[in-house]
Write a structure and sequence with these properties.
- This protein has about 110 residues and is mainly α.
- The protein has one domain.
- Helices cover about 65% and strands about 0% of the residues.
- The protein is built from 4 helices and no strands.
- It starts with a helix and ends with a helix.
- Keywords: Membrane, Transmembrane, Transmembrane helix.
Amino acid sequence: MLVESIVFALVGLVTGGTALLARPAYFRAARALVLGTALAAALVGGVVAHFSVDGRQPAVSVAAAAVASGVLTSLLARPDLAAGRAPAHRHHPHRPGAHRAARRHRAA
């Protein structure tokens, strides 16, 4: 179990590092938060998978660690805040007094 735990930790660090290198603009959170989330998710996912399959299939445990790490790391991604992307709001930004001007035009 010790060797598997080390492999789970490495999988988590690789997943977090790859996410930060591939899409750095998507992760506005601190780098340590992204790496810590990936690491913790890989460890927890790997341990749960290890006990689910009774430790007989370590490849399944490592794959589960990678999936758990990828899924929880993707929750931190914010593509809407990435550089060069406009927010996808339907409404115009609020301007003070805009509702009064609209009423004035309708009354005329």
